[in-house]
Amino acid sequence: MTVLEQLNRPELYLICGGIILFIAAVCVVMMVRAWKAGIRLGMDPARMKRTIVASATFSVLPSVGILLGVLALSGSLGTPWPWLRLSVIGALHYETQVAEAAAEQMKIHLGADQMTLEAFATIALVMSACIMSGPVLAAVFTPRYTKKLQGQGNAPSKAKGGFGDQAMVAMFIGMVSAYIGSYIGGFVSGEGRFAFRGSWLPLAVVLVSAAVMAVLTWLSEKKKMQWLDNFSIAVSMLCGMAAAALLG
């Protein structure tokens, strides 16, 4: 039995599926409680129904990006683990980046031909340990933050662009710059992980994805089509993948 077959065993589907079903049940319970709370507050049931339908509709296309992440990782980590990670607590950009970084430290590349059970255990541990910072920080600081919000009452909110927003933007700029630098270095030298034998394909995919994202951002900000924000990442990914398939 190969490593990938072991990572797709029914027992793993049962464990991961059980956790996902539990989370889904919690979501249903919270949705029912929110509906009842809305009724008690005197909200219009018809408007609440429209809100639910609109939210579900706008969630379909962004979820395509998550599905692509599951498919991308399933070729090396099996299906149950990426399915669990990206269904419960993970984020698309985080899971792929951390999995690749952990694989590099194991001196392998993500892929079924190089994956071992030891490497999978290390990758899964790193992915889980790093993401724990979010729940831990939320448990420690959320009560204090909630009290602060309650103390503000109806005070006008502060303008956007605080340290948190700036730090997040800086982090993503650094991450994107590192990847693009790897593509450029591989293209120039013809060596390294992203070299593709000196191929220009990775750079072309980056340019196509960036162009699509720029167009969607322009439409959202200049043409007042804010609803496109929900679809920009998924559409950019799909266009980038299509460009890779066509140009490759």
Describe the structure.
It is a single chain. The protein is mainly alpha-helical and 248 residues long. It folds into 2 domains: 1-134, no CATH class; 174-248, no CATH class. The protein is 77% helix and 0% strand. It is built from 10 helices and no strands. The protein has helices at residues 3-7, 10-40, 45-77, 80-88, 92-105, 117-131, 133-152, 163-189, 201-222, 232-247. α3 (45-77) runs antiparallel to α4 and α3 packs parallel to α10 (232-247). It is globular, with a radius of gyration of 21 Å.
Report the sheet-strand fraction: under 5%
Topology, number of strands? 0
Question: Count of DSSP helices?
Answer: 10
Q: Could you state the order of secondary-structure elements as H and E?
A: HHHHHHHHHH
Q: List low-confidence stretches.
A: 192-198
Oligomer: single chain
Describe the largest sheet: none
The SS-based structural class is mainly alpha
Give Rg in angstroms. Answer: 21 Å
Query: What helical percentage do the residues reach?
Result: over 70%
Mean pLDDT: 82
Q: Could you tell me how far the N terminus lies from the C terminus, measured between alpha carbons in angstroms? A: 32 Å
The tally of domains stands at: 2
In one word, what is the shape?
Answer: globular
